[in-house]
Amino acid sequence: MTKEIKIQSIVKNLGYEPLENRTIVVSYAPANLSDTIARFFSNEFYILQLCAEQIILLPLSKLSLKPQKEAALEIPFSTIRSVSTKHIGLNNHITIQTNTDSITLSTQQAELNEWRTSGVAATESPLSLKNWHKKNLADTLDALTALNPQ
After folding, report:
1. The whole model's pTM is what?
2. Which end of the chain lies in a sparser environment, N or C, as judged by fewer CB atoms within 10 Å?
3. What single DSSP character describes residue 123?
């Protein structure tokens, strides 16, 4: 449970320029049903933050769901060849194709977010109803797909 402003501060301290209201919680998308079951018990979450020139992923602590002060992955916009989003079950999958690789992330849809794990990570405090993941999701997905080269 972390305020979005705290995440922005961490990102700035790492030397990035975060874009406001472009912060969501993601995990790596499972490859198949077996992987889905395995990840149910040990899912790791990350904060996806759109910045001025890149996308970064910050790992969340498994115990406290607070962001760690390190970037797990940085994807410069200049390396992105395509971005697509797709509804799958209760999640959205985000596939980012770069010059050298492809990554598929999963993010929980806004409607049930408060009742799922990423919703806990995205609330500002235990008694708060403010959920920045839910508030930012649609615009962040739109911003990601807008990264597709023209």
Report:
1. 0.85
2. C
3. B
